Amino acid sequence: STVRMPPAEASLAGPDESILITYSELAAFLDCGLAYRLRNLIGFQPRLAPELGYGKAVHHVMRAVAEHTQARGSVPTATEIDEILDLSFFLPSANKPAHRNLKAAAKRLVTSYAKDHPDDLYRVWETERPFELHLPGITVTGRADVILDEEGGIPTGLAILDYKTSVRSDDDYGLQLQVYSDAGQREGLNVRGAYIHDLRGDARTTVDVAPAALATAESVVLAAARTLRGRIYTPSPGARCHECEVRTVCGSRAP
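Given the sequence above, the corresponding structure tokens read:
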């Protein structure tokens, strides 16, 4: 059923104003409208789990590894990866034992990637590249982890690469890269490919960035904008309720 709730203070644009939203916020809304409202609009704070921020910490290290490769002209050695981890791996919510274990896990992921995918590190065109997709009534902002050049052997060809430290089969990660690819093409960038790289499983998935796929992605964003503007926050109870950060204050969670 559809749940209509009173809006949070200054939460969204008016009926005639454009919505400005990050991709992370959009993904949270598409995942579960009610959880999005509780977390992003009302402000219920999740408990601080030791692993909170682990994915961002690994992304920061991966960016440092890419920048090292570009600056030095060589993939960092095991010793240099240790030094990068010491300087770049931050996890403030973890105690010392948890930090040590998570840092060791990050080292395994980063070392494996540097060993198995050195070509990527030499092809880095830009890291943490900001994008804005402007569509009627909504602007979606975000940052691509890495943009690679020489895609398809074409000097101007670019590919967006996104790292994931954990991948769930029911998540639509492709939409994120389609939004970024669409934004990049609208800027005049020759985005010809996009990939999701599961660091933990060392598996890479190709994301469709053909015109038809990007048009479908735009329709998803536009539909979400209409629902957001209508302040309709529909719950999506299911298996992932057990991992939801706001399940204790949600009356629609799955048993």
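Strands lie at 19-22, 124-135, 138-148, 158-164, 191-198, 203-206. Try to locate this feature in the token string yourself.
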